[in-house]
């Protein structure tokens, strides 16, 4: 007998929507080409994308921060790979992630740093009683998610852990999940690039993908009908205490059904001239590149306008043998100012920035539907919830904002923000996405000005 829950867990599949070039004349003229103009759109009407990327363990601040003025600045050593992209980025100094501070809770700065980065909400210190807050990407997805097949996309470069304890009594869920649907439910990210690709475009080779998706969607509908009928019969036999579990189960079924209906409303999927990834590469460098590739494809095909990518969880002790560093990143981050260890952390930070710079260059080299670049029509945040990895500080956290937001953001700058909540930035990004009525988020105090 087939396990119905096994099938249901595998049903969250949709298809991707390309940005149709036939819309370009209307978009270039600033005309309304459908629902959502003004919501997650640029002034030309092209899609406006927002991405949140995370790297672990803070930085060596002396090598991170630029020197000089707002426009006449010199990148710190760790940021040197961004020099070719300097006209497309803002380096934001003076943003604080204070919900990650101990405040009597003792150790656990990696859990707090990662867990609060997109929520701005203080965590409950427990391995089992998880309590966080809604993350900004999900706040955006609730409002703009209906414009695309996927309200949001959650990606990672390592296997997810959402149970058990990981850091000084905090649940693993805090470190391995950037995105939170509500205060108790993280949005589990996908680390397998093949599964991401097949979710976006279908399985099989080019030319087969659309047919495979259509067939799978029909199979999903048959299973959903079966489950709904079976659940009605089951409801009459359940004890009272199980009624809530069944209701929660059926809510998930209805959400899957809504996803299928939304996919059908967008018509046929794109079938990009890209080979399907084979799976999770053995090389971390290859894995990171592939996940950036998936993110670019998702934005390029307008499959989603909101995405997160966890490059590695905070506290990660991954070694970087591919750049000649055998020691673990976390161990090295507690360098105690020893010169050789500081040097290795700087090299690791520089490597992460190089991967980011490569991604931005590809975004800039990809033409969007309005003739601008994909990067021009995006807002991409890269940061860490810890500031100085050696001291586990959470004030003045490293944050880069890339992309012009469709022309609304002023790039090519190094800006000072005088110790304000990181979440103030998120309020400003939400406003750019058409959510001007969102006036508070997490520990925010006001919208961040001068971006």
What does this structure look like?
Helix content is 34%, strand content 14%. With 451 residues, it is of the alpha/beta class. It has a single domain, classed as 3-Layer(aba) Sandwich (Alkaline Phosphatase, subunit A), CATH 3.40.720. A hairpin with a 2-residue loop joins strand 6 (165-167) and strand 7 (170-171). Helix 7 (193-201) runs parallel beside helix 10 (284-300) and helix 10 packs parallel to helix 12 (339-364). The longest helix has 27 residues, at 209-235. It starts with a helix and ends in a 19-residue tail after the last helix.
CATH topology: Alkaline Phosphatase, subunit A
How much is the average pLDDT? 85
Q: How much helix is in the residues?
A: 25-40%
Q: Order of strands across the widest beta sheet?
A: 5-10-1-13-14-4-15
Please provide the ordered H/E string of secondary-structure elements.
Answer: HHEHEEEHHEEEHEEHHHHEEEHHEEEH
Give a nutshell description of this structure:
With 451 residues, the chain is of the alpha/beta class. The protein contains 13 helices and 15 strands. The N and C termini lie far apart (58 Å).
Q: Main traits of this protein?
A:
451 residues, Alkaline Phosphatase, subunit A, 7-stranded mixed sheet, 13 helices, 15 strands, globular
